[in-house]
Specification:
GO biological process, one term: molybdate ion transport
Helix content: 40-55%
Oligomer: single chain
Pfam families: SBP_bac_11
Protein name: Substrate-binding domain-containing protein
Number of helices: 11
Shape: globular
Number of strands: 10
Keywords: Signal
InterPro entries: ModA/WtpA
Structural class: alpha/beta
Order of helices and strands: HEHEHEHEEHEHHEHEHEEHH
Largest sheet: 5 strands, mixed
Distance between the termini: 61 Å
Strand order of the largest sheet: 2-1-3-10-4
């Protein structure tokens, strides 16, 4: 074998070992730790990209998968994945629920901590806020289409509500002063320095999103993809997810 051929074979092998993972931002806080350990233990290279599980921005996972972007492992809120599967845009070989995420409220660090302990308190806090931000993803969809309606304040807050699009976290908008009060998945809010997570929504108003991971039927390296999916449910990965503010699918309330 010539030296050139040997180099080409090595390059080909390296590429075959690369694993492309598209994940929801919900897992962004734990993903680096999980992927690093996986790479160290298996020698497989993980290439991660992320986007919201729903929405119409170019960064949204649904938009990217529907446009034909290649993904070996897809991680997103289960309802969004269900839509892709039913629409014929994504065919999973194996699928597992890996985490459960709750929605929280945050303000800029140093801001007076608002009361969100009850439905009435949360309603008043949202009415009093000068501006409110939420994402185009699963949490923001819930806030806009369910929560504000339950609280009966859709019209009252319409003029001061801001949808944070694409890969930008709500926490970034809070830290920059773009919005005073933000609502997003707790694990995502905890990523942003300069903000303080007030706490989760009251239990009677909480929306728990189940995060699913699935291996694509078109995975380039099926063995590596299946190996990574199994690793996502390992004790080490579960611990990383819990540290980031997530619950496990089988965890009791």
């Amino acid at each position: 074998m010539t030296s050139v051929a040997a180099v080409l074979m090595l390059v080909s092998t390296a590429r075959a070992a690369d694993l492309k993972v598209l994940t929801t931002g919900i897992l962004k806080g734990s993903f680096k730790e999980i992927a690093t350990r996986f790479e160290q233990e298996t020698g497989r290279k993980v290439i991660m990209s992320w986007g919201p599980s729903s929405g119409n921005s170019p960064e949204a996972s649904q938009v990217r998968v529907k446009s034909g972007e290649h993904v070996d492992v897809l991680i997103m809120v289960n309802t969004g994945m269900d839509e892709l599967v039913k629409g014929g845009y994504f065919t999973p070989v194996e699928r597992k629920d890996v985490a459960v995420s709750k929605i929280g409220v945050a303000v800029k660090t140093g801001h007076k901590m608002p009361d969100i302990s009850t439905e009435a308190a949360l309603r008043q806090t949202l009415l009093d806020a000068t501006s409110i931000g939420y994402s185009e993803g699963a949490s923001g969809t819930y806030v806009a289409t369910v929560l504000l309606k339950k609280l009966g304040i859709v019209d009252q807050v319409a003029g001061k509500s801001h949808v944070v699009l694409g890969r930008k976290f709500v926490g970034e908008a809070i830290a920059s002063g773009e919005v005073e009060l933000g609502l997003q998945q707790i694990s995502e809010l905890r990523l942003e320095p300069g903000i303080t997570v007030v706490g989760p929504l009251p239990e009677e108003l909480q929306k728990k999103s189940v995060v699913s991971a699935a291996v694509s039927s078109e995975a380039t390296d099926m063995e590596a993809a299946m190996q990574f999916l199994a690793y996502l449910t390992s004790p080490a990965s579960a611990e990383s997810m819990k540290k980031s503010g997530l619950d496990l699918p089988d965890a009791k309330p």
